[in-house]
Amino acid sequence: MIVVDSSVWIDYFSGIENAQTDKLDEILGIKPVAIGDLILTEVLQGFRHDKDYTAARKLFEDVTVLDMLGQAMAIRSAENFRALRKKGLTIRKTADVIIATFCIDQKLPLLFSDKDFKPFVEHLGLVRV
User: What is the reported pTM?
Assistant: First the structure.
């Protein structure tokens, strides 16, 4: 199973072609794709038009949605944020810390284009698709 971050979904729905959206297009319907509940919120809140929102909701019916946060994951996320900050790296968005920590913890690869995930790959073992 591959977790796909909102950075890729947003580009995908916007019609942007890059390595990540090409990969998503390649694996949709072929390999199991998942999103986190946080990712689902980030993507769906961005649609301005009901028609686009409805189309996205329909597509996500065939995608596994994972519950990403609970008390234990919140603590591990804070620990990962602090570990990176001690290395001089500050992650801008709490949601990205949670998503990366969840993927590391569950040993799930993450398809992303957001640069905030790179320190998790380089220092904490996040697997990049």
Answer: 0.95
